[in-house]
Amino acid sequence: MARAALMDFDEALERFDPVIGLEVHVELNTRTKMFSSAPNPANDEFHGAEPNTLVAPVDMGLPGSLPAVNGTAVRYSISLGLALGCGIAPSSRFARKNYFYPDLGKNYQISQYDEPIAFEGTVEVELENGRTFEVAIERAHMEEDAGKLTHVGSTGRIHGAEYSLVDYNRAGVPLVEIVTKPIVGAGADAPALARAYVATIRDIVLSLGISEARMERGNLRCDANVSLRPKGQEKFGTRTETKNVNSMRSVERAVRHEIQRQAAILADGGTITQETRHWHEDTGTTSPGRPKSDADDYRYFPEPDLLPVEPDPAVIEELRAALPEPPAARRRRLKAEWGFTDLEFQDVANGGLLNEVAATVEAGATPAAARKWWTGELTRIANAQGADAAGLAEPAHVAELAALVDEGTLTDRLARQVLEGVIAGEGSPREIVDARGLAVVSDDGALIAAIDEALAAQPDVLAKIRDGKVQAAGAVIGAVMKAMQGKADAARVRELVLERAAADS
Amino acid sequence: MSDLIRLSAADLAAKLASGEVSSVEATKAHLDRIAAVDGAVHAFLHVNAQALETAADVDRRRAAGEALGPLAGVPIAVKDVLVTEGMPSTSGSRILEGWIPPYDATPVRKVREAGMVPLGKTNMDEFAMGSSTEHSAYGPTHNPWDLDRIPGGSGGGSAAAVAAFEAPLALGSDTGGSIRQPAHVTGTVGTKPTYGGVSRYGSIALASSLDQVGPVSRTVLDAALLHDVIAGHDPHDQTSIPDAWPSMAEAVRRADVSGLRIGVVKELDSDGFQAGVRQRFHESLELLAANGAEIVEVSAPNFEYAIAAYYLILPAEASSNLAKFDSVRFGLRVVPEGGGTVEEVMAATREAGFGPEVKRRIILGTYALSAGYYDAYYGSAQKVRTLVQQDFDAAFAKVDVLATPTAPTTAFKLGEKLHDPLSMYLNDVATIPANLAGVPGISVPAGLAPEDGLPVGIQFLAPAREDARLYNVGGALEALLVDRWGGPLLAQAPDLSTHELMATEEGVV
């Protein structure tokens, strides 16, 4: 396939105004599925089960089986709708979306169509550069996930596959689909905004505890709609929908790529085909999928097997009262409490370390120390390992490490060694200090003995010090630190070296 | 013919409880009867090889002094629309041939828990689409009153099994009359409960908003006893009603129509109905009036649109419900010669696995739900549905129950309407309104039509959740008619074992 021509991003933004729309699917982590009593693989406890072991008759579409709505999934959906600032429908309804596909046990998906549970909200999204946007939410609705197809053969796609395997474990996993209104006015920030929006949704569902929110597992999936219109034009251009973009970074790259690709076509006098596109992580490009039109006929009709969802208003108010602080408000509060500069705070936030720093501060560390450890040494190690800093160490352990430095038990250098032990799972910092004998030697007697020995071994250095060439002391200090296996405070050693050199004269 | 098979379920249950008869004996008698006559009737698609074992188990439990339900040990036939663990369940379709479900439908589970003995699965129109059982992929069922005639449908197998004394009781399902119309043409009793009264879990869906499982029997009391077993809330079916139900059997035992206001729907008492059907209908009403009931004429002007609305709603829901039959997970798989894509295999399977009536309704329903047509067809049909419900509301503000002939004619000949779908659909003109409104209905034998000597039923309808009223009026009428006839109507049915014998001698079977 020929590689699509791309326009330079800056040039594209000079000529066109991008409009984006984002659809995020959130897999809820309820214990059972949306419409059956089968365990839910989107819950950590059941993740990774053997294919087709987490199924009930309804997930397989067995004749006679009937769906039954999972009340917890409804409550989670209401909480999510409220967190998105949405209204909750006093009565919403499930509908059948009819289409034939082998990953769909019934050959229809139970979804919500014209009567979603949550509608009309806003989410405040802060970009890495500190700019904030109010993203308008059109709706959030409940539905079920489909099974998973594995196409065996050269193409890896259903067409051209020798055969395909179906795993119905995922069929019926509860989903909430969150749909934004068209987002205009982001300009060159459109790709970053798309990424920050998904990150914000992730923060929200994590703070609600309603999803494991691991994008690499598909707990959170994003479809990105992108269209361009010439600068100054009111009417939206034709959009494409890039499906299942499964990391924050890819969301940003995919939007950026579509802007550049569409700009090149439009500038060349071409037209954009309304279609779904596949995102290719390896090449950072999209390729055409199924042509899509508004006339796609899913023959929606109200699901006759289920009653309308009519939540008790008291329950809605209970859930509203239990909502956690919105991520944007929380960031503002923490920044003020911690007294960080914009740059310091962005360093933490953009590193995805807000929760870690907060927990470390809560465990007793100063905000400065917590920030220093998480954005410094832990991030460095994580980068080297190709892992996320978050999760590398327990915030309580990091706080303990900071305390050990503060009380003088550890030098920074020793503390880094202890941290390695913590990451290796050797225990708490104190346990490691004890086990490895890493504490600073603060006994002057032991230091003086080592210094006297070093001075005696290097009489020329001693002579230079006595001549007033104080910088020569470095050689002695180095020898002492070596003898102490690094467990000494170098500044104290220097003081004592000068003292001993003078005393002996 | 063994006397055991002639007993009503209630009488058989009494003999079982007293120890006079064992469930093994009763079950054996019915299995023998099936062996003797079902070659001619073809009510059963599958006979349960475990039936005697189940019966022996109930006998053991009874001997051990275990407290058993009122119908424990009584055999029962199960319409093949209901899934049965360990027994094939085809819904009368080739596409499910040989499929053995891994679970029991809730009504089947309840029947088993009540200690009843499933005899097997009964024939039906494919996926319950039809009024004659001629649309079964496995050949038609014959009416025990006249083997050349239809037993009604879609539940012709259950009705014929009960009418032919192959089973004292059966389970049926009624989407537009599939329990009541077969009862009408076979001289049996059949109830469509209030929508949500009996769980639909495990009933292979035809039209989810219309389907309802119910009892088939020879007496009103038997229907009530079975109704009491299968009714009740089921968390697996969210459309099932959570409230507790009064005993239907009690309603029959206390049957009394004095002061009961019975509404005659004037739109369903017209020239469109066979003379003998109307004659027996009016005689029944006179009998009830003579015993204290008040007969009132009521109008239901929107009933005339019910069939049109029904034939949009039903195919629409069915087209979606039947989409699951795609060869991927269960049932028939037809691979085109030389292999094919998944779409081609699905298409070939559905082409080979579905009969013409099923295809007709899938196409109708797909069309009715299509973008651009939805409002005109499905949307309008739902509005008519609301109007039909309003007609019922208005009528029930004046009367306690409604009465109509159950169906326009007595049993017609096999093949007579097979190629005339519209005339076939008209069979359900009197039964469909109840399904659209979710209200309960019962068909009770009203006699034989003078012109052809074939059974005629009378239908009673009650407001939603008032199923007990049906058993009250049905039980009262039955008692009055049995007095008049000097015995049950089915005593007048031809003796099939003789017929079977003759047919065998002639080499027909």
TrEMBL record, chain A:
<protein>
    <recommendedName>
        <fullName>Aspartyl/glutamyl-tRNA(Asn/Gln) amidotransferase subunit B</fullName>
        <ecNumber>6.3.5.-</ecNumber>
    </recommendedName>
</protein>
<keyword id="KW-0067">ATP-binding</keyword>
<keyword id="KW-0648">Protein biosynthesis</keyword>
<keyword id="KW-0808">Transferase</keyword>
<dbReference type="InterPro" id="IPR004413">
    <property type="entry name" value="GatB"/>
</dbReference>
<keyword id="KW-0547">Nucleotide-binding</keyword>
<dbReference type="GO" id="GO:0016740">
    <property type="term" value="F:transferase activity"/>
</dbReference>
<dbReference type="GO" id="GO:0005524">
    <property type="term" value="F:ATP binding"/>
</dbReference>
<feature type="domain" description="Asn/Gln amidotransferase">
    <location>
        <begin position="355"/>
        <end position="501"/>
    </location>
</feature>
<dbReference type="GO" id="GO:0006412">
    <property type="term" value="P:translation"/>
</dbReference>
<dbReference type="InterPro" id="IPR018027">
    <property type="entry name" value="Asn/Gln_amidotransferase"/>
</dbReference>
<dbReference type="Pfam" id="PF02934">
    <property type="entry name" value="GatB_N"/>
</dbReference>
<keyword id="KW-0436">Ligase</keyword>
<feature type="region of interest" description="Disordered">
    <location>
        <begin position="272"/>
        <end position="296"/>
    </location>
</feature>
<dbReference type="InterPro" id="IPR023168">
    <property type="entry name" value="GatB_Yqey_C_2"/>
</dbReference>
<dbReference type="InterPro" id="IPR006075">
    <property type="entry name" value="Asn/Gln-tRNA_Trfase_suB/E_cat"/>
</dbReference>
<comment type="function">
    <text>Allows the formation of correctly charged Asn-tRNA(Asn) or Gln-tRNA(Gln) through the transamidation of misacylated Asp-tRNA(Asn) or Glu-tRNA(Gln) in organisms which lack either or both of asparaginyl-tRNA or glutaminyl-tRNA synthetases. The reaction takes place in the presence of glutamine and ATP through an activated phospho-Asp-tRNA(Asn) or phospho-Glu-tRNA(Gln).</text>
</comment>
<dbReference type="InterPro" id="IPR017959">
    <property type="entry name" value="Asn/Gln-tRNA_amidoTrfase_suB/E"/>
</dbReference>
<dbReference type="GO" id="GO:0070681">
    <property type="term" value="P:glutaminyl-tRNAGln biosynthesis via transamidation"/>
</dbReference>
<dbReference type="InterPro" id="IPR003789">
    <property type="entry name" value="Asn/Gln_tRNA_amidoTrase-B-like"/>
</dbReference>
<dbReference type="InterPro" id="IPR017958">
    <property type="entry name" value="Gln-tRNA_amidoTrfase_suB_CS"/>
</dbReference>
<dbReference type="InterPro" id="IPR014746">
    <property type="entry name" value="Gln_synth/guanido_kin_cat_dom"/>
</dbReference>
TrEMBL record, chain B:
<dbReference type="InterPro" id="IPR020556">
    <property type="entry name" value="Amidase_CS"/>
</dbReference>
<dbReference type="InterPro" id="IPR000120">
    <property type="entry name" value="Amidase"/>
</dbReference>
<dbReference type="GO" id="GO:0030956">
    <property type="term" value="C:glutamyl-tRNA(Gln) amidotransferase complex"/>
</dbReference>
<dbReference type="GO" id="GO:0050567">
    <property type="term" value="F:glutaminyl-tRNA synthase (glutamine-hydrolyzing) activity"/>
</dbReference>
<feature type="active site" description="Charge relay system">
    <location>
        <position position="154"/>
    </location>
</feature>
<dbReference type="GO" id="GO:0006412">
    <property type="term" value="P:translation"/>
</dbReference>
<dbReference type="InterPro" id="IPR004412">
    <property type="entry name" value="GatA"/>
</dbReference>
<keyword id="KW-0436">Ligase</keyword>
<keyword id="KW-0648">Protein biosynthesis</keyword>
<keyword id="KW-0547">Nucleotide-binding</keyword>
<comment type="function">
    <text>Allows the formation of correctly charged Gln-tRNA(Gln) through the transamidation of misacylated Glu-tRNA(Gln) in organisms which lack glutaminyl-tRNA synthetase. The reaction takes place in the presence of glutamine and ATP through an activated gamma-phospho-Glu-tRNA(Gln).</text>
</comment>
<dbReference type="Pfam" id="PF01425">
    <property type="entry name" value="Amidase"/>
</dbReference>
<feature type="active site" description="Charge relay system">
    <location>
        <position position="79"/>
    </location>
</feature>
<protein>
    <recommendedName>
        <fullName>Glutamyl-tRNA(Gln) amidotransferase subunit A</fullName>
        <ecNumber>6.3.5.7</ecNumber>
    </recommendedName>
</protein>
<comment type="similarity">
    <text>Belongs to the amidase family. GatA subfamily.</text>
</comment>
<keyword id="KW-0808">Transferase</keyword>
<dbReference type="InterPro" id="IPR023631">
    <property type="entry name" value="Amidase_dom"/>
</dbReference>
<keyword id="KW-0067">ATP-binding</keyword>
<feature type="domain" description="Amidase">
    <location>
        <begin position="25"/>
        <end position="470"/>
    </location>
</feature>
<dbReference type="GO" id="GO:0016740">
    <property type="term" value="F:transferase activity"/>
</dbReference>
<dbReference type="GO" id="GO:0005524">
    <property type="term" value="F:ATP binding"/>
</dbReference>
<comment type="subunit">
    <text>Heterotrimer of A, B and C subunits.</text>
</comment>
